[in-house]
Design goal:
It comes from Rouxiella silvae. This is DeoR family transcriptional regulator. The chain has 249 residues and is an alpha/beta fold. It contains ten helices and 15 strands. The strands form four sheets. A seven-stranded parallel β-sheet has the order 6-5-4-9-12-14-15. Strands 1-3-2 form a three-stranded antiparallel β-sheet. The protein has a three-stranded antiparallel β-sheet with strand order 10-11-13. The radius of gyration is 19 Å and the shape is elongated.
């Protein structure tokens, strides 16, 4: 079998099973694990999968540039944003992550809802200017332009001063093995730190993020209390989240 044919079959298996293991592929194709690892490296270099220890996972489609992502899954993001708003109570302190789903969230906020937003996204902060009852606290740092959020070690001291009710967290991947992931190391660290300062972490995930993974881990699935989605989950994921007592809306 040609290498190109084998790699196509690997992608088909990955699409069907959501993960592949090097050892199992080696046995299936009767070739060495070194050859399989080379195939996986080449597919990863093309952006077609995410390599992990022992194999590979489906790569997240949510790592495209910000302007591209703004036009992806807009109806789903609006549905998820509307669900998120129902969780906000008057007087709450709410950490709002950056990202395109968060942008949809603030567009749908009722004008008469009084609460406090803490954000490290300049876009989110500016989007709340016309909401007179919403107090806005902006956490500064170095601007990460891909996601239009601030990052960096200097933010951690500010984050430690926050005791929030909710954290609406954006991710690029939700996977039963890899957990919650994103495409940038420092952004993953900031998300983790923000989650630790909220009573509840609510993850907003449009369909392209489910059963996929990016390079940097934010944390295990059990760091979230609630997962907001549009559509349904497969049986394995539903059972896992239920066992962790994670609410799925």
């Amino acid at each position: 079998m040609l290498s190109s044919q084998r790699k196509q079959l690997i992608l088909e298996i990955l699409a069907r099973e959501k993960q592949v293991l090097s050892r199992e592929l080696s046995q299936r194709f009767a070739i060495s694990e070194d050859s399989i690892r080379r195939d996986l490296r080449e597919l990863a270099a093309e952006g077609l999968l995410q390599r992990v220890h022992g194999g590979a996972l489906t790569v997240s489609a949510a790592i495209a540039p910000f302007q591209v992502r703004k036009s992806v899954q807009i109806p789903s993001k609006k549905i998820i944003a509307q669900k998120a708003i129902t969780l906000i109570q008057p007087g709450y302190i709410v950490i709002v992550d950056g990202g395109t789903t968060s942008e949809e969230l603030i567009k749908l906020l009722p004008k008469d809802l009084a609460f406090t937003v803490v954000t490290h996204s300049p876009t989110i902060a500016v989007g709340l200017i016309d909401f007179p009852l919403v107090d806005v606290i902006v956490i500064g740092g170095q601007l990460y332009k891909h996601s239009v959020v601030t990052t960096g070690a200097a933010m951690i001291e500010s984050i430690r001063r926050i005791n929030a009710d909710l954290f609406f967290m954006g991710v690029t991947g939700v996977h039963k093995r890899a957990g919650f992931t994103t495409g940038h190391y420092e952004e993953a660290c900031v998300k983790k730190a923000l989650s630790e300062r909220a009573a509840e972490t609510v993850v907003m995930a449009s369909p392209e993020k489910i059963n996929s993974a990016s390079a940097f881990a934010i944390g295990d699935l059990n760091m979230a209390s609630t997962l907001l989605i549009d559509g349904s989950l497969d049986e394995d994921m539903s059972r896992l989240l239920e066992s962790m007592q994670i609410t799925v809306l």
